[in-house]
Amino acid sequence: KRVSSMATKLKGLQLLPLWQRKIPKVPVYWHGDPQLRVLMPHFWMKLVRPKEKVPNNQAHFIVHPQMSKMDIKNYLEKIYKVPVLDIKTRVIEGDFIKHPAYQQKPIAKKDDIKKAYVQLADGVTFDFPDIFEKTT
């Protein structure tokens, strides 16, 4: 077998990047099947607080690496009923983990992170919740 140039070898194991991994198939539904099934999406999104001050009509998310802009838009509009105007994404490369004794060679790499910057439609605002009380 030919190994992909993007695949990394770590102690004899071949690790594929997340965008080359396959998404598992949903279970097949047969008419009259007595089992009740709840089909959950394989994707996930995590709302994060922006580091800098942003307008009220923007929200930042860390998303599943295989999600496209269209997936993010459909996810927010269909599940949470949030109107979306524009989406920008970027992939932040994970850091290399180095051995404490041998600093020259990295022994592993942290996973990459995909961030989505979502601009909400006109008239829709989002304020990040303040869950911790301010002490004076």
Number of β-strand runs: 8
Low-pLDDT parts are none
Class of secondary structure makeup: mainly beta
- Please indicate the percent range of residues in DSSP E strands (runs of 2 or more): 25-35%
Number of helices: 1
Quick structural overview:
This protein is mainly beta and 136 residues long.
Structure, described:
The protein is mainly beta. It is 8% helix and 29% strand. The protein contains one helix and eight strands. It has one helix spanning 69-79, and strands spanning 8-10, 13-15, 45-48, 58-63, 84-92, 96-98, 106-109, 113-120. Strands 3-4-8-5 form a four-stranded antiparallel beta sheet, covered by helices on one side. A two-stranded antiparallel sheet has the order 1-2. The longest helix has 11 residues, at 69-79. The chain is flat and about 60 Å long. The chain starts with 7 loop residues before the first strand and ends in a 16-residue tail after the last strand. The mean pLDDT is 80.
